[in-house]
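In keeping with the milestone schedule agreed at the kick-off meeting, the structural modelling team has produced records for the first pair of proteins. Each record is given below as a sequence line and a structure-token line. The laboratory manager (R.T.) confirmed that both were archived under the project's standard naming scheme.
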Amino acid sequence: MSLRSLILIALTLTHFQAAAWSQNGHRIIGKIADNHLTADTRNAIAPLLQGDKLAEVTTWADEMRSNPEPFWQKESGKWHYINIASADEFKPHHYHLSATDGEVTDIYAGILKATAVLKSANTSLKDKQFYFRFLTHLVGDIHQPMHAGRSEDWGGNKIKVKFFGKETNLHSLWDKGLVESENLSYSEFAEFIDTNDAKLISIYLASEPKDWVLESFHLAQGLYDIGNGEFKYHYVYEQMPVIKQRLLQGGIRLAGLLNHIFDESAHAKAVTK
């Protein structure tokens, strides 16, 4: 096999693994997060948004995958997912990252690295803009269960299924198919599922990125039981509550993480609307 063919295969694998929530999915999370930021956080992230809305920048890390630079073609893919064979295999304490060192090996490492960079007083504005945009995306990605799927099937990308008769794969179904089946804009979807329930917000925030990884891992294990792989109304009925919960959790937790990074006075990590 030629070197060119091997490179193309490697790039294909990276792109398959890097696939994420649809644009609507990420923007739903960004819109919800925007509703729960403190005033100080809003002021702090204004230079990082560069005139964009939070919902807009959540898709940046996917949009940049077409950039021909080596980082985007060879390195960035692994930032979007994590593959673990069992819950016991995931060892969060093995990750040692700071704002100035540490390799990003998977999505959990990416979230830790981005958080450290953004909290550091020594980080340049350019680097903060980069890691801020990536962080808003990664928090969304880790709430998509198949981003903690199995390595052998590329997080469900190699598992063929049908959704209302149309061929797709298990990963894509969870990235896009189920979200888009609601026929809502991202702002409508966010408005419908967002919450002002302080108790529920508190429950969602009583967690850390390592918990989000394990939540998605455990959810993914059940999703691999696809039966005959023919999904219609029953699957939507069964799984849409999970989709809505993960999108809401992603939004609330993104707000909580940003408030934690940028607003030292915030008693709660996310605020009610």
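The second protein of the pair:
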Amino acid sequence: MADLQDDLHTAAEVGRVDEPYPQEAVVVAPETYEPVSDPDAEPLTRAHAVLTAHPVADGYSGLPWALRRLPWYDLDLGESAVDADVPRLRKGQVGAVFWSLHLPEADDGGRAVGATLAQLDLAKAVVAAHDEGLRPARSAGEVADARNCGRVAVLFGPAGAAALGDSLGVLRSLHTLGLRVLTLTGVSWAGAAGLTRFGEEVVREMNRVGMIANLSYASDPVIRRVLAVSKAPVLFSRSAAHALRPHPANLPDELLAEVGRAKGLCMVPLTAEQSGPTVRDVADHLDHVRTVAGPECVGLSGTYDTGGTHPQELADTSCYPRLIAELLGRGWDETEVALLAWGNVQRVLREARFTAHVAQQRRPPSTAAIEDLDG
């Protein structure tokens, strides 16, 4: 029998949208940051000092897919065919990166499940083959451990929602294999009309296992419903400010404000198409998101190795200090930069894990099937 929570339980019981988890279980104490640079130094010098203490957590990289077309590569020594080898990650003071498992083809059903598993297998093999520079990570603690060992933490995801094959069992299996972010687009249960009942159950099960919802490119009804259903923070892995550049994935101010109220994370992409052709344009988007959503709700998304064009002075992952220098020159204080670069991603990872811990005490694994909820 399917686990039909909506039919079998009242609104006050487990897994319901309108039942908050105990606040003490999901609220994370704010980070405290001490100044680490000379306020009289040049912005680029200050940027390097701040990033030494609070490196960049990059919200989106297409490297696994880009490597598929190369007959041979060595990320440790340097690889000119990609944007993000280990030397350039270190030069850019990147401490963590999310590797996308999105599928360029319109795979669906079993093909999408298999293709995602193949990409995940490749990504793990790449990390294992470059363990002097890279380390896999599944949690905020493992991200910090990798950084303390001088490695770049690699988190797997986002993957497309089609990778689930409409199965909550596959969702749990992918999480066990290391997937940490899922994009809620491109499926029948998360489309232009919003989330279906099965879609809401997917979000609740993601909360229960600790998988984070990515809402870039999702429809407005999906975004609003996920913000209502999810007990854990959501992120937008590739979304800038629509008020500055009307791209389909960029967020209007009303949604940015909702993201701020929900303590989600809008990660501004370093692409000319979404954010503009110069480093100043990217900084304008970061300024705007910080103002509308709040400094604790803005992050960075390199979007390197995805085939897009990057702004001037931000050609590859070595260029992050230039962007941070631009922000410091505009008056961002070190606390705000530390949150932008590192702290906000760590908060989202911690809160997702805490939410999962609470949910697992209150709710067994869901056995709901799409044909029972949406049929």
